[in-house]
Amino acid sequence: MSGVDIAPLVDAELNRRMPERVKMRPDDSQGFREAWAILERLWGVTIARARTLNEAALHRSVDDEWSFIQTLRHLNFASAAWVGRTVLGNLSPWHHLDLPWDEAPGWDGIPWDREARPSLDDVLTVRRERQAMVRHVMESLTAEQLASEVTRAEPGWPQVENFPVKEALHIVLNEEWEHRLYAERDLTDLTNGS
Questions:
Q1: Which domains does the chain show, CATH number per domain?
Q2: pTM here?
Q3: C-beta of residue 46 within 8 angstroms of C-beta of residue 72
Q4: Mean pLDDT by 10 residues, the chain (194 residues)
Q5: How far is residue 188's CA from residue 1's CA, in Å, rounded to a whole number?
Q6: What is the 8-class DSSP label of residue 12?
Q7: I need a surface site. Which of 17, 67, 68, 111 has the fewest CB within 10 A?
């Protein structure tokens, strides 16, 4: 190894290829609103693309990753955890179709059924509710709220102490951005018959 840190070069190249990527780490309320609007627009295109495939394909795993529908279920879980519970204080914001990450330890009262095979429309019903919740938080976000911290010590997940609201919202933006890229990659494979 040469000791050269190439991470900044990779980051710069990714930003060049995807100019909206840099907007996923906002610092102010308006930046969060803009980032969320970008994500909703991009996901709209991805959902329209997914609708061109049959339901069985949307339940198919590509390279042992989550299926398209499982990805949406996971994003529903992430929004519930980081916005519903952490930011808004709803201690049990879960829907029975939510899907934590595979290595999660499991918690009482939090759904976890990776084998469920709900329809795309059923998952999108929950997704629209979660997107509306996040959109409402972003639209009403003030500088004071963005600078605040929250503590959630009650049973469940996440349990956090003095956790920055800004970081909770960054987590949701990152989950949405990265998982859409995975979904697009997998939709390409499914469309090509992989």
A1: 26-191 (1.20.120.450)
A2: 0.91
A3: no
A4: 64 64 92 97 97 96 94 98 97 96 87 92 98 98 97 94 98 96 94 78
A5: 35
A6: H
A7: 17
